[in-house]
Amino acid sequence: MAAHRSSCSGNRSFVAAIAAALALSVAPMSVWAQDLQAAGTRPTQFEALSLRSQLQGLTADGGSITRPSPDAAPSASERAQAASPGVVRVRPAAVDAAAISKVLAAPDLMVDADGDLVGTPPAFPLDLFADTGLRLIKLDARADDQGVTILRGLVLPPVAGSATAAASIGTATFAIDGDQLTGAIRLGRRTYTILPDGTGGHRIAEIDLPTLPRVADDAIRPPAEEATPAPAESPRMLEKKSAAEPAAPRTLERAHDGETIITLFVVYT
């Protein structure tokens, strides 16, 4: 039973980590976007999606920022996580610091006044699974106030010029903190995450967003305030209150003999 509780707790932590990674790709970056637009030569991540026809012919060069770990066979824990709702598959991986440095050193993607590419941006391989090798094009990179480098880019399928490739372009956002890499990749209807595993390695997961369970709301809220009851009144106070309040006036009354009686209440000082 204890093992089952531990497994459930691990799965909840894994889902929470995935949710945090996915938040990278939708986090507000309005100030950053305004800065890029002010320059007039750097497209935002979503504006760059319209460049897919100009990017399809790029050839990936160099090593992937992720590679299979030496122990590529998933552990029992990883197999359990892959069987959990919302997780299609999981694989252990390592990150290549040299490949990450090469991507960061690459120039930002630039466009001219007509929205066309300036020069030929480099493309880098991004290997997620054996059947999912993508091309990564850097958009820009910037360090936040915590010293974490945020790298944003575009991803394309590996086969340039095919009908599938021409119709597919996605986004990638990575947070690089020392030797730890957290990332979210979206391509068409597929979503992938890269997360540190807590042991110095990383895990890559393919996520099925419609079936991903929502993270439980663990907010701590103060107890609801109970209404304070009104103090009880003594019989003497009730008697005084009754004497002080005038009787409700009768406005219209019909006498027994058919006459109408009008009662007036006059207040004067």
Backbone shape = elongated
Main β-sheet, in a few words? 9 strands, antiparallel
Strand order of the largest sheet: 1-2-9-8-7-6-5-4-3
> Tally the helices: what do you get?
7
| Rg (C-alpha, Å) | 34 Å
Strand content: 25-35%
Unreliable residue runs: 1-8, 28-40, 161-166
Residue-averaged pLDDT: 74
Gap from first CA to last CA: 83 Å
What is the helix content?
A: 25-40%
SSE run: HHHEHEHEEEHEEEEHEE
Structural class: alpha+beta
Give a count of the beta strands, DSSP E runs of length 2 or more.
Answer: 11
Task: Give a description of the structure.
With 269 residues, the protein is an alpha+beta fold. 26% of the residues lie in helices and 27% in strands. The chain has helices at 2-26, 30-39, 52-55, 76-82, 97-105, 163-166, 235-244, and strands at 66-68, 87-95, 123-129, 132-143, 149-156, 170-177, 180-187, 190-196, 202-207, 253-254, 260-261. The strands form two sheets. The chain has a nine-stranded antiparallel β-sheet with strand order 1-2-9-8-7-6-5-4-3, sandwiched between helices. The protein has a two-stranded antiparallel ribbon with strand order 10-11. A hairpin with a 5-residue loop joins β10 (253-254) and β11 (260-261). The radius of gyration is 34 Å and the shape is elongated. Residues 1-8, 28-40 and 161-166 have low confidence and may be disordered.
